Amino acid sequence: QVQLVESGGGLVQAGGSLRLSCAASGIIFSINHMGWYRQAPGKERELVAVITDNGSTNYADSVKGRFTISRDNAKNTVYLQMNSLKPEDTAVYYCNADWTARVRGVMIAGVTWGQGTQVTVSS
Q1: What is the arithmetic mean of pLDDT over 79-90?
Q2: What is the pLDDT of residue 66?
Q3: What is the DSSP string of the chain?
Q4: Nearest CA to 120 among 8, 31, 45?
Q5: What pLDDT is attached to residue 27?
Q6: What is the pLDDT of residues 3-57, one digit of tens each?
Q7: Which of 24, 63, 71, 92 could, after both became Cys, cross-link 67 (CB 3.0–4.6 A)?
């Protein structure tokens, strides 16, 4: 019922910046948490940042002070501003959202992942 489309990845030099976007579409009643995760080659997927529907945020220690997550509830879109990028930030970044929807009068809930966008930081 809900799809996520990410954009904004790419190749950047160390110290540079990128902004990721993730737009949700579909039969949406509400979107609760929206977050960004990343997975580097040979590593587990890890949380980068998450934002609740009222704007509360939480970050991985490795990105605090460098990354900022935000959302536009009117557009069902979440953003990740990444500054002072490091080579160790290189990974595929995935958007995630947990949502509720009304289908034929019944409320359902679910979690959707985006397709991922590659971020590569060169040294």
Answers
A1: 98
A2: 98
A3: -EEEEEE--EEEETT--EEEEEEEEES-SEEEEEEEEEE-TTS--EEEEEE-TT--EEE-TTTTTTEEEEEETTTTEEEEEE-S--GGG-EEEEEEEEEEEEETTEEEEEEEE---EEEEEE-
A4: 8
A5: 78
A6: 999 999 999 999 999 999 999 998 788 899 999 999 999 999 999 999 999 999 9
A7: 63
110: tokens are 């679910």
Residue type, 32: N
The most distant pair of C-alpha atoms in the chain lies apart, rounded to whole Å, by 53
Question: Does residue 14 contact residue 122 with C-beta atoms inside 8 Å?
Answer: yes
Residue 43, both tokens: 């590593």
Q: Which two tokens stand for residue 68?
A: 């900022």
Nearest in space to 37 (alpha carbons), one of 121, 122, 114:
114
pLDDT of 1 higher than 80:
no
